[in-house]
Task: inverse folding
């Protein structure tokens, strides 16, 4: 009897145990994020051929091409204008002004070329124009003396905590037919990004024999239609490294560094691969996944000194860009960002970074607010935990390059992953004021008004509430 009772009790315990286990599994299932069920055509993304219209060389002898702009100082009153002249150096002057028929100002830049194996670049010009009025339309022209080409841009409003401003987000763009769809989709987006936050991997020229730098030129011509009219904020990715000792190219980042200038000195950085800018209500920190970031390195020391400088009463939103994501539940580039996370994540929590955008993985993913900073080798506390002081991590490496989509995900979806989908697309981060920003991800297959994923952000400094309780 006793034995039977015991046996019954044991059975009951087993049933209860199984039930509890089922509850845990059920609870895990309920708490997990969403893996989108969207079905797409899974073809490899093909690069556009060299004679594609988007790569067309502009008419006229020595006509400037590959025109692009970026922010030229720390607070948005300067612009770096860059372009390439193919036949001879020509003029490095930029003419500019507030009226299309009256370019009353001029600034002179510098010109140079570089060689890469058997390739010699065109004449690359960079010119910084300064002391611009905020929130103003400027027209500018390059190609003085030969084929003059005119463009325009709008400067950001003066920095302030409640200034509304809209950023676009693209990563890992490349120059495939899908890349073209992504850029077109971005241009048509009703939210109208005013500045592009680009999270690295530009041309994918390094996938061609001897890193054929002609594909850097085609990429410059392809993106001109956006980058000549609004600043693209650059982040260096692994496809910018171009380190090829077997053909004698041992200077990392040579094409990228020659073609894409950034205002790194204005933020006290000693390298173009990590720097910061203020723009409207945002403080944007760009980090380098492929430059040393360990303790005592220049990047570490710069970031350590940089974060305390961010004044949230001046720039309410703190945004970080990097190439290799820290939180990534795809089976591609898995844990490549881990060592940088170990170094810098405690600072991101301490200084309440609002959002981190990364690329590298050719898919889309958005995290919950989580951190993983408790682990100290001996305490076994090595799991990410919910943390309202932590950023949201967004992987937006789905620009559409020739390497195709990352479709293989870790299973089950980790709890910290709020939404993931392997489709090409872009995103918009739309700051409304110091407390609220609206974020949306747009997949290329949809009409441009469709948001495949979206979220209201509450600012971590001014209103650090749990967004999951926010009404959209
Ligand atoms: Fe990458």
Result:
């Amino acid at each position: 009897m006793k034995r039977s009772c015991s046996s019954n009790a044991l059975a009951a315990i087993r049933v209860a145990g199984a039930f509890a286990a089922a509850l845990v599994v059920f609870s895990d299932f309920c708490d997990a994020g969403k893996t989108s069920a969207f079905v797409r055509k899974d073809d490899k993304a093909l690069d556009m051929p060299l004679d594609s219209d988007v790569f067309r060389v502009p008419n006229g002898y020595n006509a400037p091409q590959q025109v692009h702009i970026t922010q030229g100082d720390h607070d948005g009153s300067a612009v770096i204008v860059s372009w390439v002249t193919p036949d001879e150096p020509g003029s490095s002057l930029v003419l500019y002004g507030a009226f299309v028929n009256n370019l009353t100002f001029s600034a002179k830049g510098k010109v140079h070329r570089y060689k890469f194996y058997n390739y010699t670049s065109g004449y690359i010009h960079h010119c910084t124009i300064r002391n611009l009025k905020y929130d103003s339309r400027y027209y500018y022209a390059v190609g003085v003396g030969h084929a003059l080409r005119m463009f325009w841009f709008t400067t950001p409003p003066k920095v302030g905590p409640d200034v509304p401003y809209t950023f676009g987000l693209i990563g890992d763009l490349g120059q495939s037919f899908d890349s073209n769809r992504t850029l077109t989709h971005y241009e048509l987006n009703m939210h109208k990004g005013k500045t592009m936050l680009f999270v690295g991997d530009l041309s994918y020229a390094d996938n061609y024999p001897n890193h054929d730098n002609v594909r850097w030129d085609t990429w410059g011509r392809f993106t001109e239609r956006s980058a000549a009219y609004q600043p693209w904020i650059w982040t260096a990715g692994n496809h910018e490294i171009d380190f090829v000792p077997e053909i004698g190219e041992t200077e990392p980042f040579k094409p990228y560094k020659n073609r894409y200038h950034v205002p790194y000195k204005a933020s006290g950085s000693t390298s173009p691969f990590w720097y910061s800018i203020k723009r409207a209500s945002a403080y944007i920190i760009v980090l380098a996944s492929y430059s040393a970031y360990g303790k005592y390195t220049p990047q570490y020391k710069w970031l350590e000194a940089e974060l305390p400088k961010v004044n949230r009463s001046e720039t309410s939103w703190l945004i970080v860009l990097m190439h290799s994501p820290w939180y990534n539940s795809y089976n591609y580039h898995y844990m490549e960002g881990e060592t940088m996370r170990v170094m810098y994540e405690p600072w991101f929590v301490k200084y309440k970074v609002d959002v981190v955008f990364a690329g590298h993985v050719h898919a889309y993913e958005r995290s919950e607010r989580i951190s993983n900073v408790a682990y100290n080798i001996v305490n076994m506390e090595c799991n990410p935990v919910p943390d309202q002081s932590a950023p949201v991590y967004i992987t937006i490496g789905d620009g559409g390059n020739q390497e195709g989509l990352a479709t293989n995900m870790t299973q089950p979806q980790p709890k910290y992953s709020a939404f993931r989908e392997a489709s090409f697309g872009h995103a918009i981060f739309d700051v409304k004021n110091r407390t609220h920003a609206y974020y949306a991800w747009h997949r290329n297959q949809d009409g441009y008004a469709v948001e495949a994923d979206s979220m209201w952000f509450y600012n971590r400094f001014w209103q650090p509430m749990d967004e999951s309780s926010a009404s959209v």
Remarks:
- Residues 1-30 have pLDDT under 50 and may be disordered.
- The longest strand covers residues 436-443.
